[in-house]
Structures are given as structure tokens and as C-alpha cells.
Amino acid sequence: MFWIYGGGFVNGGSSPAVYDGSKFAEKGVVFVSANYRLGRFGFFGFPELTKEDADGELGNFGFMDQIAALKWIQRNAGAFGGDPSNVTVFGESAGGFSVSMLLTSPLSGGLFSKAIIESGGGRTNLGGQRYLSTAAPNGPPSADSVGVVFAKSLGIEGTDRGALEALRHLPAEKILGNLNMASMGQPGYSGPMIDGRIVLADPESVYLSGEGWRVPIIIGANSLDIGFGFAKDKDALFAPFGIYRDKAVAAYDPTGNGDLRIVQYSVAMDHMMVEPARFVATVFASEGVPSYEYRFSYVAESMRSKWSGAPHATEIPFVFDTVSAKYGKDLAPLDEKIAQTMLSYWVAFAKTGDPSAGNTPAWPRYSPATDMLMNFTEKGPVAEADPWKARLDVTADYVSASAPPPAPRMPPSP
Length: 414
Known about the structure:
By secondary structure, the chain is of the alpha/beta class. Helices cover about 35% and strands about 10% of the residues. It has one domain: Alpha/Beta hydrolase fold, catalytic domain (Rossmann fold, 3-Layer(aba) Sandwich), CATH 3.40.50.1820. The protein has an eight-stranded mixed beta sheet with strand order 2-1-3-4-5-6-7-8, with helices on both faces. Helix 11 runs antiparallel to helix 16 (about 390-400) and helix 12 (about 260-285) packs across helix 16. The longest helix is centred in the middle third of the chain and has 27 residues, at about 260-285. It starts with a strand and ends in a 12-residue tail after the last helix.
């Protein structure tokens, strides 16, 4: 199993205690994780850099590292008792978006046989419809132009060879800057982009075209997952739903008395994480590919007075069974039991393609007709029809109706 950590492509690493893969190894899995470049070292464009190797792989250097790690696994897994023909990639948040990239990139074929996406969306790229060298209609500026903005912020003018050399002589601290999860939207950082070699388009376009790599998949999100909403009132919140406004109000605020902050959070997380997960599960299942959807709703006993649901990333120590490292003296027996169960599902899926292959409650394959998922709750894993179906249906209708025409697959040559 190859783990890809999250952190918005600006933070993260493979060394935190909650990412310790020992429990996977104890169950007969060869566990691999690798650091990949982040921030401007991982995702950067500049006109002269693009011209330097116009036919090469540019811009998404962090993704290149992930692909290189998977190639390393192909070459070396056997030496550790692993099977290079049975590799499962899994990741959370930016790591989940990375798994989507691997599922849709022409350069990752044959490098893995199964995939798990934890809170990684599924419709869009995390950086939006950003191209390496040109801006999409009504889209963000190109990565190359963002690189120019960054250079100017450090007193480097122009876009010629001299400017590129000046960038290359900058100390690492200058390039890193103050990038973090709070500042990643600054003008001088692009994040991942559509480069024409590794990333050809947004995942949704690739999936709907029938392209990409169809392998068995587990995908899902948390019950209090991440999302961003800034509406000043409910009229502003529901206005974008257009002709589906009344359905949205009925699904998200049926009494009309819901707290704006809570209702808005539900709308935002469904749009960013929860509905896209169901979308991917639907596409794969509709093509006969084994697909399993989950929702992580379990809240550690010590946090139940603070959290109304399971926040973004809180499933990770349960998947890895590293809850003791996460919760320490506050760890409860039920926390440990849920962790052992989740680990068993992930291991069974990695070994066989069926998460129910272990001694665990049966996890039904996803089908659009039944809309069944596995909900990890305080009662344990519960296979049930999605209780949020009405919410996700109206979100899917809104997303489909408001989607812009597909942007060009390949960015024009610089």
C-alpha cells in the first residue's frame, strides 16, 4: 500500500506518528510512504522554464515525485515480500486529490491496481481549472503568469533567461516564503495545474469521457468534512441553486430555522467533498468496477463534547490504527475497536479488492440504484442507504446544471 499524505500541497510529510504504517505491516502488507515536493518546489511555472523543455514534464513536480515513488515500488516491492501487481494507492485530502490525479493521468498506467480516496473530492482539481501556460476562459491565471508575479515580488523583473537564472539562485527560504494552509491562496502560488502531460483535465471530465484507469475503489468523506462558504444570509446561500433552490431549501433547511453557519457548512462540504465522492463511486459502479463508498461519522469519545461530527482528517488515525498516538491518555476502548475495524477493511481491500474479506460486517458494493454506503458510527460500521441522499441529489443537479463547457484538454503551446 502506498500512502499519500495531505496538507493542501503546501504542508505535510510522511513522518507524523499517525501515519505510522506498522499496523499494516503486522497484517502482512508492505507499507510505503514517500515525501513529495510541496509549495513552489512542488508546483511552479515560469515562461522561460516552460520554453526550456516545452515537450517535457513541467509544473507539477510534486506529482512527478509520487509517480516516481510508484515506479520505485514496481522495481523494489518484491525484495520486501510485496507484489508489484497488487499495489493500492491511498491518500487523504491533498493526498486524495493526488489519487484522483493518478486515476486520470496517462503516466500512471500499470503502477497500481486499487485506489482509496479519503476526503479528496472527485470532480475538480484542487487548484481549479488552472493551466500551465494559458488561462482557461473564466478560469484562474496560468501557472506561468503566477510565477512571474512571484518573481516580481522578490524584485526579479522580466521573463527571459536572466530572470529564470535569478530565480534559480534564490535561497530555499525565499522560495518557501510563508506558504501554509492559511496563505496558500496568495497571488504568487499556483498549486497543481493542468500541464498536458501528467494532468490533462479535471477528474470529472476524464471520468465522464470513459478514460482514466478503472480499478476497484473505496471513496468517501467525513460527517463534518471541509468546505468553504461565505454567504451573508440564506437567500445568498441558496440563490446559486437556481431552479433547484426550493429542493435545496427542503433538503438543507426544511424548517427554515436552521443556523446559517451550520446550514452553510453542510452545503459547502457536500459540494467540495461528500457529493463528489458519491459521483466517483457512481461512475465506477455504473461501468461494473467494484466501488465502495463510506462515510466516517465516528467521533472519539474524548471529543464528543467539542465536535458535532467527524471533522476533516479525523479518520486517519482510525484507518492506520494509530489512535493511541493521536489521543494518548484520553483513548477509549471503543476508539480502539473502531480503529481495528477500519484497518481490517482497508487491509482486506488492499489484499483482495473486497473490504469485507476479513472478519468484519459486510460492506456492500456501491450501486446508484441502492445508494448504499458503510457509515462508521459510534455503533460501529453500519451498511445503510445514504441518509443524505436528498442533499446530495440536489447538489448533483446544481453542479451538473451550472457546470461550464469543458475546457480544452491540452493547454496551447507556449
